Amino acid sequence: MIRIHPSLLAADLTCLREAILIAEEAGVSALQIDVMDGHFVPNLTFGPKTVEDIRKHTSLPLEVHLMVEDPIRWIEPFYKAGANSLIAHYEASSNLDKFIHQCKVLDLICGLALNPATDITVAEKLVKNIDILLLMGVNPGFHGQPMFLHFPEKVKKSKAWFKEINPHLLIEVDGGVNETTAPALLKEGADILILGASFYLNPKRREFIKHLYQLSST
Ligand code: DX5
Q1: Residue 143, Cα to own-chain centre: how many angstroms?
Q2: For the segment 134-150, what is each residue's pLDDT rounded down to a tens digit?
Q3: Which of 34, 177, 180, 201 for a ligand 1 pocket mutation test, highest count of atoms within 8 Å of Cβ?
Q4: What domain count does the chain have?
Q5: Which CDD domains does its entry note (predicted)?
Q6: What CA–CA distance (Å, rounded) separates 195 from 202?
């Protein structure tokens, strides 16, 4: 069954508690919190304090997507804030082995994110030690962007190649996932879908989520 993680980036941030309730009522698996530093990506968003406050109001797992330079620096602050999983970008760190190790020491779910232009071969030596491989369907920084063409092919290749190395690896897709793009992603074996605009800006989000669960159970 597919796992859905709404991205709070697309919610009305003046009503975060409402955004959390909407996610809980929709029956999602976790909340994704997009942390951006204005350097690795051209946008600024949340810090540990936001995660700490969100933590107080939900039992949903909190997945922190670190779109930041030097992700290792942020492991401890987001762990203390209550994050359940941390995802760092391959393009942002020269020492991902250290990032992965430190996450494991803290018993955090650990993920590696690849931007659209980054080939999956770079992850070969890392996938055996991570829980999630996050494939970006858009260049990171903003919600509501269209997914790159032929992106489902990257999901298909990742699923086929990495399941031999790590049978437990979950392939997560983030960016541009909507009614149009989701079926192909599910067909190619995506395990987790990140929904920003197609969830929080979609008045028919409950029908959409139900449709995704139905598609993934066939
Ligand atoms: C983009 C973020 C995504 C984004 C998803 O940089 O990492 O999580 O919020 O939003 P949509 O689904 O609207 O592309």
Answers
A1: 12
A2: 999 999 999 999 999 98
A3: 34
A4: 1
A5: RPE
A6: 10
Hey, what are 196's tokens? Answer: 């920003």
DSSP 108: -
Residue nearest atom 4 of ligand 1, based on CA coordinates? 143
d(CA 175, CA 7): 10
Task: Quote the CA–CA distance of 151 and 141 in Å, as a whole number.
Answer: 18
For 140, the token pair is 């990171």
Q: Is 174 a catalytic residue?
A: yes
As for ligand 1, residues whose beta carbon falls within 6 Å of it are: 7, 9-10, 32, 34, 65, 138, 140-145, 174-177, 194-198
What CATH number does the domain containing 37 carry? 3.20.20.70
- Mapped onto helix, strand or coil, the DSSP state of residue 47 is coil
86: enclosing H helix or E strand? strand 85-89
Q: Which residue range(s) make up the domain with 128?
A: 3-216
The confidence score (pLDDT) of residue 94 equals: 78
Q: What is the pTM of this model?
A: 0.97
Spatial contact of 91 and 66, defined as CB atoms under 8 Å apart: no
* C-alpha distances in Å from residue 81, one per residue of 4, 19, 28, 172: 22, 19, 21, 23
pLDDT digits (tens, 9 = 90+) for 77-95: 999 999 999 999 999 987 9
Residue 125 has pLDDT above 80, yes or no: yes
